[in-house]
Amino acid sequence: MNLRGLFQDFNPSKFLIYACLLLFSILLSLRLDDKIEWSYWAVFAPIWLWKLMVIVGASVGTGVWARNPQYRAEGETCVEFKAMLIAVGIHLLLLMFEVLVCDGIERGTRFWLLVFMPLFFVSPVSVAACVWGFRHDRSLELEILCSVNILQFIFIALRLDEIIKWPWLVCKVVKILLLSECQGCWASSGWQAEMRRQWILTMGGLLAEGSGGGVGGTE
């Protein structure tokens, strides 16, 4: 094993995210199985740590940007700063959703459409971020997942509120199809270009479906 190459490709931010998600998954599983009696606010601690690091990093980046006016004259630096602001905005909306979920579980709320409202805002913001990122050749991961999952968010919220009585497998069909498409894109040689093409096709299909539903509703 080439340890030098491994550390050169090491991404601290992704490592932090995956570590927090892994720890959160373990704590949540233990809590749901009644192995631990912690409050859900404590169970969500890895998620809070993740978002805290995002906010701290964005604050430091904004401070450096404000104290160094010469960076504003560099085109690539401006793109990096705007990308950071977009990412922070999406993370703040996700944080709002996670706080509402945690509060809803603790209080036993049943109005999940309100809890999922931040995700309904995340999706159009992510669509705009994807368009901007493709124009500036930015690497996109979280934004793509949020933008194409709008129907999934709606189905889950409606199912939790028992507005629809569909089986959970039917509600997850969108997720299964998206994962299949992403796996095929990743396996291809030009997976970034293919992912971009699939994102455009997916969003075009969603828009066409929405337009078709609107036309059908007016007849």
UniProtKB/TrEMBL annotation:
Record has Lyase as a keyword: no
Source taxon at top rank: Eukaryota
A family per Pfam: Tmemb_185A
Residue stretches in coiled coil: none
Membrane-spanning ranges: 15-32, 39-61, 81-101, 113-134
InterPro entries listed in its UniProt record: TM_Fragile-X-F-assoc
Keywords: Membrane, Transmembrane, Transmembrane helix
Name of the protein: Transmembrane protein 185A
Source species: Thamnophis sirtalis
